[in-house]
Amino acid sequence: MCIRDSVNTLTQLELALLDSAKFDDSICNYIARCSKLKVLDFTGLNTVTDEGLSSLIIEEKGGEGVTELVHLRLSGLNEITDEPTARFCGVNRGLQILELCKCSKLTAVGIEAIIRDAHCLKRININMIPKIKLESIKETIEQRSGLEILQFAVKNVSLADNGLRVSLPPVEKKKKKKKVKKAKK
Q: What is the C-alpha separation between 22 and 20, in angstroms, rounded?
């Protein structure tokens, strides 16, 4: 199935760790037409830049773009910066989970803007972003009770670790119903 054939129905798109040479900002022009997306995963597509992220928001009359996201994974996008990232997160009013692990150009200013503007945000992963220290955004964090911020205090990281493998939240297991045996008469 092709993206252009399912723009009105696609709710989840995972492009994580695909060959970056085949994907660049131009893919975002197609994805911008998928206004029903709830989950978008760009993990490791380091050829996606601010321009691509900005093109996911269609500002033309009648255009929506990608504005319904609940879960956004941008981990490993080395070329995205504060303003376009915060703006994109801000238009996705229902955004609850944001993964920005190893987005090296992001700063505390951008993270504060995201936390301030994404009102539904429940969890943000800012692991392995050297310019961000929790102390520098402490005041903004304190204003958002219930927000889970993931930033591990790891000093010695293996060079083999690309920093993009982060555990998913635990899945609640459904309780099995007990079968009741009927007594024989």
A: 5
pTM: 0.78
Residue 71: how many other CB atoms lie within 10 Å: 18
Close Cβ partners of 185 (under 8 Å, ≥ 6 residues apart): none
Residue 128: both structure tokens together: 């392995």
Length in residues, the chain? 185
Write the DSSP symbol of residue 96: -
What residue has token string 């893919």?
A: 27
Closest by Cα among 12, 127, 119, 21 to 75: 127
Q: For residue range 2-18, what is the model confidence (pLDDT) as tens digits?
A: 556 677 788 999 988 87
Contact by Cβ (8 Å): 112, 118: no
